Amino acid sequence: MPLILMVDDHPLFRDGFANMIRTLRPTWQLSFADRAERAIAEIELLRPDLAILDIGLPDGDGFSLLASLAAKLPDLPQVLLSGRNDAGVRVRARTCGARGFIAKSMPPAVIVAQLDSVLAGGMAFESENASAEVPQLTTRQAEVLGLLAEGHGNKEMRYRLNIAERTVRAHMTELFQILGAHSRTQAMIRARELGLID
Question: E strands along the chain, which residues?
């Protein structure tokens, strides 16, 4: 009987999700938090079997919350949830360490099947609208892209990632090639178009 924590600030969606679980998986237990701060407290108190995090929260975003929760409970499976269903968000979810991605528009049977997969130790990134044009980034490439989006130079990235500056340059070169960019500005524009960064 798994315990699932859902972090979402939309009461209507939470109620619909709870109704779906009562109907399709009546033995599952649900707990809810409406913001990142509350989710961290609930995780420490409840120690759930799975956390489902909305990407957009009033006091942060699901990507940052995922990292915070992973630091506290590295073995906790986490799934990101969003009203957006584009390939870029799925790629970013995977590179941030999520075990799955759920689009709110998916049919209930598909959502539950994906959660079953994650609870069984698998991954769940299937989508009806997968796009082959969105590049797959390694975890390190995603970290470099995130720091680039925050405006950090190579030296700052080096210190933050604890790697050599030549390694940062190598990752930047790879990112430029992957994104088809010739400058940092072009890389940022392309990454935003693809949904890889906000």
Answer: 3-7, 29-33, 50-54, 56-57, 60-61, 78-82, 100-103
Q: Which of 30, 4, 183 is nearest to 100 (CA)?
A: 4
How many CB atoms are closer than 10 A to CB 163?
16
pLDDT, tens digit (0-9, with 9 covering 90-100), for 106-160: 889 889 999 999 999 999 886 544 444 567 788 888 889 989 989 999 999 999 9
Q: What residues does 54 pair with on adjacent strands?
A: 81
Buried/exposed 58-70: b ≥16 CB within 10 Å, e otherwise: eeeebbebbeebb
Residue with tokens 């890889």: 196
- Specify the DSSP class assigned to residue 196: S
Residue 29: DSSP 8-state: E
